[in-house]
Amino acid sequence: MTGPEPTLTARARQAAESVVDPELPMLTLADLGVLRSVELDDDRAVVTITPTYTGCPALVTMKADLRLALAAAGFPDAEIRTTLSPAWTTDWITEEGRRALHEHGIAPPSPVGARTVTLQLLDRPPDPACPRCGSTDTRVVSRFGASACTSQHACSSCAEPFDKVKEL
Amino acid sequence: MTDHENAYSGLVEADSDARWAFGTGFDDPLAGIDASVPPGIDGGRLAAYCLVLGDDSLVMAQRLIQWCTRAPELEEEVALANVALDLLGQTRLLYARAAAADPSSVPALPDGSPVPAEDRLAFFRDPAEFRCVHLVELPDTDFATAIVRLFAFAAWRLALLEALEGSVDPVLAAVAAKAVKEVHYHRDYAARWLVTLAGGTDESRRRTLDAIASTWPYLDELGRADDVSSALLPSGGSADPRAVWSSTRAVLDQVLAAAGVPEPKGAPAGNGDSAGAGPGGRDGRHTEWLEPLLAEMQELARAHPAGRW
Ligand SMILES: [Zn+2]
After folding, report:
1. pTM of the full structure
2. What is the average per-residue pLDDT within B51-63?
């Protein structure tokens, strides 16, 4: 089988990569790390994404937005597949994505790496630096926030609250 | 009125991209995933097991969202709702897995009903068809009860999911691997609150001790071997409840010690000995609290068996 011309694949990829996350719109799906692959099946675009959290209601919107972006790029009947494995990790958020989060006042997640499931009762993770003033004198308000992937924090130096994308 | 003048024009189902709110237009959460049952696994047994796991998380989620507008602080309301949302997401995947592994496990509805399999399983089964453990059915009488119950549930659920990462069913293993990360946060949240409440005021400590005393008897069921798990165990599809319980027990002990709480009287032996124990949730026998919970949750869907949401 001879593959489709690379420019066509590149066009589909570019269209898919331009779609932004509905809840964190400063991030593209590529920067968020949920876009797993963009391929062509003959001239039909096949995009595979992975959910962040199992209950994340934004997944439906992501799929719809991908279909619209691909249709606009000349792929009218794109197929959007879901994959669960390997599970999404915040380590897949790109450097560009981390920069965009920070610029918008959201603290990016720390590296997760080889995670151990120990009870974090006494050894709490270090508090994130304030994305506004850079102070490390911050505290956790809640480990759960307005969206499934964020936690709430407050800065003791500039007194501003801020969100953080929590490690997963 | 032209479309751009109507703020609601994008909200109606004009095409397949309806998006008037998050939470509508759901499709099969396993779409595009190879859902074939691996060789050596019985589809019916796998489906029954996934239903058991999904029933636990669905009923727990339903209890938790009852805290919306009632939690002591907005942050805790958001936290409990987030935990519920994670558990609901896990339920959707587990129900979809059950439906794919054994389509006959899904309740039949009138021809042409658009209600998807996961919703049929959630809304169109009677209490006796549910297989959740009694722990998830209990009403939360105060915040301490909610925290104690969530802690025990999350500690157990996490141990169970960790074991299921090794299931020979690749779909169940993948769902478990995702869910482990989420429930890790649930357990930490509840454990920290438990320690905080136990070390807080006299009143918060009293309520915490009361909550532990009233919740602990229900943990006995968690460590018991049950027919559904046992049927799938030899083929490597399920986790052994007794092994899961011993991992759970270590975490419970650790947190109770950190909270300065003595071992509750009548703490479950957790030796898998079900002799003398009455039928439990895994047998379809439930507490008095499940039926009203399901009635409230199912009422709207049942009134519209051909409804599209
Ligand atoms: Zn600051």
Report:
1. 0.91
2. 98
For chain A, give every residue range classified as CATH 3.30.300.130.
6-90
Residues of chain B in contact with residue A58, where contact means CB-CB under 8 angstroms, are: 22
Q: B205-245: per-residue pLDDT in tens? A: 999 999 999 999 999 999 999 999 999 999 999 999 999 99
If pLDDT is split at 50, 70 and 90, which confidence band does A122 have?
A: low
What sign for the dihedral angle of Cα B46, B120, B57, B78?
A: positive
Q: Which amino acid is at A165?
A: V
Residues B185, B87: Cα–Cα separation, whole Å: 12
pLDDT in tens, B151-188: 999 999 999 999 999 999 999 999 999 999 999 999 99
Query: What's the gap between Cα B38 and its chain centre?
Result: 25
Q: B39-303: what fold?
A: Ferritin (1.20.1260)
CATH architecture observed for domain A6-90: 2-Layer Sandwich (3.30)
What residues of chain A have any CB closer than 8 angstroms to a CB in chain B? 22, 48, 51, 53-58, 60-61, 63-64, 67-68, 79-89, 115, 117, 119-122, 141-146, 148, 152, 166, 168
> CA–CA separation, B186 vs B84, rounded Å?
10
DSSP tag of B30? T
B77's CB contacts (< 8 A; 6+ apart) are B67, B68, B69, B70, B71
- Strand ranges (E), chain B: none
Cα separation of B252 and B195, whole Å?
Answer: 12
Q: What pLDDT, on the 0 to 100 scale, is given for residue A116? A: 58
Closest residue of A to B170, CA-based? A85
